[in-house]
Automatic annotation (TrEMBL):
Species per Swiss-Prot/TrEMBL record: Candidatus Southlakia epibionticum
InterPro entries per the UniProt record, alphabetical: YeaO-like
PANTHER family attached to this UniProt entry: CYTOPLASMIC PROTEIN (PTHR36849:SF1), CYTOPLASMIC PROTEIN-RELATED (PTHR36849)
Cited Pfam families: DUF488-N3i
Name this protein carries in UniProt: DUF488 domain-containing protein
Length: 125
């Protein structure tokens, strides 16, 4: 069973993060590759540039962003491929650069993972 979690990339990497995946389309400002300690940069499943720019991390747009991003994920073969890859790990931490820990693409992606792997998924709040 895979355990999924989300975490800001600006937080220090920890051994209990497991497999660390950056799910931003753009590289986060001020983060070196060493500090990121990534196992994977999966920008192909991040929100499209158009959706990302429209959302602009505005919490008032979050509900609509969530619907649109879930639609993008449903139509993105890389999302299914990523899910299949990540199932082989005990723990996967989805990393993001946004300051808002409640209204970002990693939170939506966590919901997507839950919807598509509900019998084999344990989510850490």
């Amino acid at each position: 069973m895979t355990t999924y979690d989300t975490k800001r990339i600006y937080e220090d990497a920890r051994p209990d993060d497991g497999y660390r995946v950056l799910v931003d389309r753009l590289w986060p400002r001020g983060i070196s590759k060493d500090k990121a300690a990534l196992d994977e940069w999966c920008r192909e499943i991040a929100p499209s540039n158009e959706l990302r720019q429209w959302f602009a991390h505005d919490p008032a747009k979050y509900d609509e962003f969530k619907v649109k991003y879930l639609q993008e994920l449903a139509n993105n073969p890389e999302a299914a491929a990523a899910l299949a890859r990540w199932r082989s790990y005990t723990r996967v931490t989805l990393l993001y650069g946004a300051k808002d820990t409640a209204h970002n693409q990693a939170v939506v992606l966590l919901e997507y993972l839950h919807l598509h792997e509900s019998d084999n998924l344990r989510v850490i709040p």
